[in-house]
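SAMPLE LOG
Freezer: B-3
Tube label: C17
Construct: single chain, 441 aa
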Amino acid sequence: MQGLKFFFALSALVWTGLAQPVLLQMGEKSLALTFPSELWPEWQGVLAWEGRELRAQGLPLEPMVRALGGMAAADHLFAFARADEPGVALSPEEVRSAVLLFRVDGEGSPPTPLLFLGDQGRVLVAPVRWLVLHGPREGLPEVGVWPEAATVTLVTPAGARTLSLADLETTFVSLTYPGSYVRSSGERVTALWTGIPLPDLLGNWPAETEIEVVAADGYRMRYRYGALRDAEGVWLLAFKQDGKYLPFNPGYFRLVKAGPGNPTFPSGASARMVVRLEVRGEYRPYTLRLSGARTHEFSRWDLELGVACPCRARTVTATHKGETRTYTGIPLWRLLAYVDDAVAPAGPGLKYEDAAFNWALAQGEYLVEIRAADGFSQVIPSSYLAGEDRFLLALKVDGRFLGEAEGGPLLFVWDDGVPAPAGLKRVKWVTEIVLRPKDPR
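STRUCTURE (predicted):
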């Protein structure tokens, strides 16, 4: 869409700097959207407005909506500029052409972020702050209140990483669920909590692993990793209560148990003022090595963080030995972009860049060999994989990380509905991907 022109009329307002974040809320799932983004595909083009051409940049809306669960044919996504004003409803068809513009350069530019329909050149909301499926349940939550001091440090035997509140809300999917804690007096306190599930933050650990939570005042509390999620709900690193960001006192982050059924937990089990999460367990590092025109190696952190972000993770339904399960992982073709030629996505970690994938080479059919730790391997022509998100290196099954007996940490699997070569088998314990020329015979 680069270079495409859209025509619309707005009152003259001056762009005054970086746009505010936009909150996308799809049911219980939410994600804050900012620009520039290393996670989502970007749009840039030229807007013709009031006889002038203005450069514009932003994000297509449809990939984010799809990543958070998508929309049914009868659904509507409501866009709001203010909490006290009525929203504008978007159909699934309109969402497919909608773009969030976070920057429009030029004197007299429209306010940003703004929401417009690319195929119609029609502005819907300017500026836009919330995008909510089916409209708000009980008011609109705060968005973008990110004090610099609001950080949490994750510590594992492999090292430590500090994440800001902005990192958390823009990278991980937040869940919003009710949960009730009971004080020692017997008083029950119920709230609607928004936060990141601890298993998404911490990655793949055995059930017996110990998680120690450290508060700003030095207080420590321990949890068993296997108890962080059960039929009642999930433990969240919460940063909002009833739609409002938690204040400095009693702390920007709190551990709470929440879920659709409003689980109850003792207040003594709810750590407040959380600043640090320490994992006390056996660290089993693993890597994925890719070889082709060049070599590249992904670490355990790269892969588990990749599957935690909805911008990269994909889910398929696959049947094996009569049992149908859902698997979540990383599309194999996205990894091939790192080694199919001399062009690779730049920077550390796992990134998706369509331009880095050699489409012409893939259609010419090289072979992709998927190798396991036990020596087993399978080969698939590249033409099956190009642009196809349904061939995965899965890290999760039915929402939880794969165990070793299930083929984890990395399992090659594909969706029941995708065309696959005859005789292709899933590969457990994947450690290496090798690209090689097709046999000329």
